[in-house]
Write a structure and sequence with these properties.
Blueprint (H helix, E strand, L loop, with lengths): L1 H24 L3 H10 L8 E7 L22 E7 L23 H13 L3 E7 L14 H11 L3 E5 L12 H17 L7 E4 L28 H5 L29 H7 L5 E5 L10 H14 L2 E7 L13 H12 L12 E5 L13 H15 L6 E6 L4 E4 L4 E8 L3 E6 L2 E6 L5 E4 L5 E10 L5 E11 L22 E4 L2 E5 L14 E6 L63 E2 L12 E4 L2 E5 L16 E3 L13 E2 L12 E4 L2 E5 L17 E3 L2
Parallel strand pairs: 1-2, 1-8, 2-3, 3-4, 4-5, 5-6, 6-7, 7-8, 10-16, 20-21, 24-25
Antiparallel strand pairs: 9-11, 11-14, 12-13, 12-15, 15-16, 17-18, 18-19, 21-22, 22-23, 25-26, 26-27
Helix pairs in contact: 4-5, 5-7, 9-10
Length: 692
């Protein structure tokens, strides 16, 4: 009788627990279906977030890079990691000491970010990780430096990957909680939501479950996931609270970690400042009911209006090899998120997160983080209550100024669209029914024009985007900024207006006055018609005959000619009468950023230099990128002697030792290969030595 009575009590307790669980969490199925249908055309696009470790990146090549090749199924990339205490000079594009470990320079990184954004992918800069929180110096954070870096490189926001001392063991301590709050609020102030910036974080999976010991702040008595409700929520016996490695997979063990509850005080103080919480639902032992982690974060997401991404690890997990996110688990939890969980999140833009995109599954070598992302994306798209298409204009940019006579490439990125209609000044130009969704617009008149694209789904729903562009006269100085003595001009080729003259810098400069420093090259006077020197669009070709002398021609021209150019045409002769900008190069075309150059070996002129393409060139892929398709052509012994020294170009590489360059009024020669940006005088032990 005693054993039967005990068994009866246990069964009764189990029934009571299930009843309490339903009261706390469940919503009637009919209500959930109604909610699901109500959001059918109003829901937000779900997320697939993937961490991309910068140390796994490759050099740009004809096939791109690993990062550039990430497909559009990955809607958000967390590029990891920068140092929390990084230091960065605004406008410098110098990434050598910030923690990012890509094998190329900052300008190439910016170009890569731009390429991903053109696909419609959000690119978010991840801060910290396991590596960069190991010392007190880590907390010497200059939030303005980080914001400047984000703005310069065009990142969509930041992810605080806060793991003090390389893990989550102490993250719930009051000091670390306050640090976390300060990080979020400081970055929100400098990167406001009104400007479209995303503030994200990647906390521990159990961070929204309550745990009052040893810190009472890490519990929430009003939450259904409070510590007092742990047995009800999980259905497990209290004795297994700290049994996190059992093959039985006790879910109650999620309440027993030192990191349990660490996000609760953070949400109280800074929850409204967050846009995305991508919790790390891995390295949490063997707990089996992992949807509880998502539901606990979803509870606070409804309070503070942020989105949640369920974080999974491509097998194997290094620190918690007791649970495996195989393909079946990936599908199970992605479907759970798509359906909205216990807190009716369907249609609110939640999704999944993976560490990391390049990792190959130890279970199935045909699957990696990218393939996981594609599977998840398909589930979210199929299950999510969304049929409305999305559209973004990738080219041109809004308010672009385009020279008269240049063709305009009008391109969009769309999802769930059957066709796209392109309009110029509200007149239908073309309808495109398959990718790439792009048209080429020719012969637009000088003035302002509206460009509109309308995406139409198979259900007939439409969404449109509209921008303005301005076609400007060939000789206009519009949008050329006034020279700023305090500004850093880090990239060669910036145009400025000073004393009614347009100037272009040949290398990095700050404070050097145009007309008084060799760094600034004369382009043309305001209103000049292109027949004087380098008239027109900052190019060598507009003043073909060089009337009144070209200022930046070739090596041998016009030394004493009448009105001769300062450095007349390449073969222009010593008398150089009316020496032309490019001498006998009149058949070489000026680089056109709107064109494709499909034939390798095509020669163009850009900023008074000749370049040859090594492979296919897409529109807008300007000469000067040292890792790009263009290579500089040196002729007539240019750079071979001090007398024929080249003007140093900060964007160029110098692969051949013994090349002579002019820089800051001095002549240098290189002792070995020189990378872009490694300018003369930068390092006394560097590749350059002074000749005179």
């Amino acid at each position: 009788m005693t054993k039967r009575f005990i068994s009866f009590c246990i069964a009764l307790l189990a029934l009571w627990s299930c009843s309490q669980h339903d009261e706390l969490l469940s919503t009637q199925e009919t209500q959930k279906k109604e909610s699901f249908l109500q959001t059918k055309t109003t829901g937000e696009t779900p997320m697939v977030v993937g961490y991309f470790p910068s140390w796994s990146e490759t050099y740009p090549s004809t096939s791109g890079t690993r990062l550039r090749n990430i497909p559009e199924e990955v809607t958000h990339i967390f590029l990891s990691f920068i140092k929390p205490n990084m230091r960065y000079v605004k406008g410098s594009f110098d990434i050598k000491n910030v923690g990012i470990e890509v094998p190329y320079d900052g300008l190439t990184l910016k170009e890569t970010v731009d390429i991903l954004k053109a696909k419609g992918i959000k690119v978010i800069l991840s801060i910290g990780g396991e590596t960069y929180w190991g010392s007190n110096e880590s907390y010497d954070i200059d939030h303005q430096n980080i914001a400047d870096f984000v703005r310069d490189f065009g990142f969509d926001g930041i992810d605080w990957d806060y793991e003090p001392n390389g893990g989550f063991q102490t993250i719930g301590e009051p000091e670390n909680v306050e640090r976390f709050i300060s990080m979020i609020k400081s970055s929100r102030e400098l990167l406001p939501r009104s400007e479209g910036y995303i503030i994200a974080c990647a906390p521990a999976g159990c961070g929204a479950l309550g745990r009052p010991t040893p810190y009472a702040q890490n519990d929430d008595s009003e939450s259904p996931y409070s510590y007092a409700n742990r047995a009800i929520i999980t259905g497990d016996d209290l004795s297994n609270e700290y049994n996190s490695t059992s093959t039985q997979g006790y879910t109650i063990s999620l309440y027993g970690f030192a990191s349990t509850g660490h996000m609760i005080p953070v949400f109280r103080a800074a929850g409204d400042d967050l846009d995305l919480v991508a919790f790390q639902g891995y390295n949490t032992g063997s707990a089996s009911q992992r949807e509880i982690m998502y539901d606990s974060y979803a509870y606070y997401a409804n309070k503070h209006n942020f989105k949640v991404a369920f974080g999974m690890h491509i097998p194997d997990e290094p620190w918690g090899p007791y649970y495996v996110y195989d393909e079946s688990k990936l599908r199970e939890y992605t479907s759970y998120v798509a359906q909205g969980g216990r807190h009716d999140r369907a249609g609110k833009g939640d999704g999944v997160m993976f560490w990391q995109l390049l990792q190959v599954s130890s279970i199935d070598r045909s699957l990696d983080g990218i393939e996981y992302s594609k599977i998840a994306y398909s589930i979210l798209e199929d299950s999510a209550p969304i049929t409305t298409p999305t559209i973004s204009i990738s080219s041109p940019v809004n308010n672009a100024l385009i020279r008269e006579g240049k063709n305009v490439i009008f391109s969009v990125n769309v999802k769930r669209a059957e066709r796209v209609e392109f309009f110029i000044n509200n007149i239908l130009l073309a309808t495109v029914t398959e990718a790439p969704f792009s048209v080429e617009v020719e012969n637009l008149a000088v003035g302002t024009h509206s460009l509109k694209a309308k995406a139409i789904s198979i259900t007939g729903e439409t969404v449109e985007k509209e921008i303005s562009i301005k076609i400007i006269d060939k000789n206009s100085v519009e949008n050329i900024p006034l020279w700023d003595a305090s500004a850093i001009y880090a990239i060669a080729g910036n145009q400025v207006l000073y004393n009614n003259i347009v100037w272009s810098n040949a290398w990095w400069t700050c404070g050097d006055e145009p007309g008084r420093s060799d760094v600034w090259k004369y382009v043309r006077a305001e209103g000049e018609d292109g027949n004087n020197g380098n008239g027109g669009d900052n190019s060598a070709g507009d003043g073909d005959n060089g009337n009144n002398g070209g200022n930046n021609g070739g090596d041998n021209g016009g030394d004493s000619g009448n009105n001769g150019g300062n450095n007349g045409g390449d073969n222009g002769g010593d008398s150089g009468n009316n020496g032309g900008d490019n001498g006998n190069d009149t058949d070489v075309e000026e680089y056109d950023p709107s064109k494709k150059y499909s034939t390798a070996g095509t020669i163009v002129i850009y900023q008074n230099k000749k370049y040859k393409n090594k492979w296919w060139v897409n529109p807008g892929d300007y000469p000067g990128n040292p890792n790009g398709p263009w290579e500089l052509i040196l002729e007539n012994g240019e750079g071979s002697t001090p007398e024929k020294a080249l003007d140093y170009d900060i964007m160029s590489t110098y692969p051949n030792a013994g090349t002579f360059v002019n820089y800051n009024g001095k002549v240098y020669t290189n002792k070995w290969y020189v990378s872009a940006g490694d300018y003369p005088g930068k390092d006394e032990w560097g590749p350059w030595e002074i000749v005179k």
